[in-house]
Amino acid sequence: MYELRQITAQSYYIESPAKIGLVKLGENEVCLIDSGNDKDAGRKVRQLLDAQGWRLHAIYNTHSNADHIGGNRYLQGQTGCQIYAPGIDCAFTRRPLLEPSFLYGGFPCKDLRHKFLMAQESDAQELTSEVLPTGWEIIPLPGHFFDMVGFRTADDVVYLADCLSSRETLDKYQIGFIYDVAAYLKTLEQVMTMQAAMFVPAHAAAAEDVSELARYNIDKVLEIAEKIVDICREPLCFEVILQKLFGAYGLTMNFEQYVLVGSTVRSYLAWLKDAGRLNVLFENNLLLWRRA
What we know:
Elements: E1 3-6, E2 11-15, E3 20-24, E4 29-33, H1 39-52, E5 55-60, H2 66-69, H3 72-79, E6 82-85, H4 87-94, H5 98-104, E7 124-126, E8 137-140, E9 149-152, E10 157-165, H6 167-173, H7 181-192, E11 198-203, H8 211-231, E12 236-237, H9 238-249, H10 255-274, E13 278-283, E14 286-291
Parallel strand pairs: 4-5, 5-6, 6-7, 10-11
Antiparallel strand pairs: 1-2, 2-3, 3-4, 8-9, 9-10, 12-14, 13-14
């Protein structure tokens, strides 16, 4: 882990639980795409940079999930680098309590206020095209999180953030986190047709072609949607739907899985309702979901 992998003369990535992009901006100056999941990740990245004699100019965050911004504070404190994050995710990066609060739907208890769901604050500025290195392009990739983006570098390497999960991850965990199902499917359709010298997803292997993997991710989303519709043959409340999904996919409930999968299932329910496939009714002061 935390090994430097070179793609082109300028573009690299650091092998880690969520891949960190690294791009040379000059002889000794580099920038990062995301920063890892915590202070220890930031320290390992700093050691790697020091070993190469590189100076960190900026961190470009793709989105504000804790495993992508966890090294921000340490690296900014050590190097004075600039940090940029897109849209709503910039607010989450500056105020990370927003992430577990959003997932839980209220003030999160201590079980949810930890580094896996809540990074340390960092002084992020809003990402715009004006702050990008020369020749870079911002690629909007909404769906997984609010305003998630990827980047295309000047040498045609595309960093895809969290819009793709590996087959192994999907087969093991089944239900990947999604904020907006409709936007996520559009993003995957877009990724299926993209061309690049190399693609670097954060949670799948770097590859020259990711179209089949994008299709696999789409199929998994549609499979879960059908499963939810089938579960709702009779009116059920959210908690029972969640319980049945965990049972169907052999998942184990804990606090983290409750908020991560639970938030995702709520997004599926909203999408299916808007598409006219589910109806809601209120009975005995319960909100119930039923197949249309």
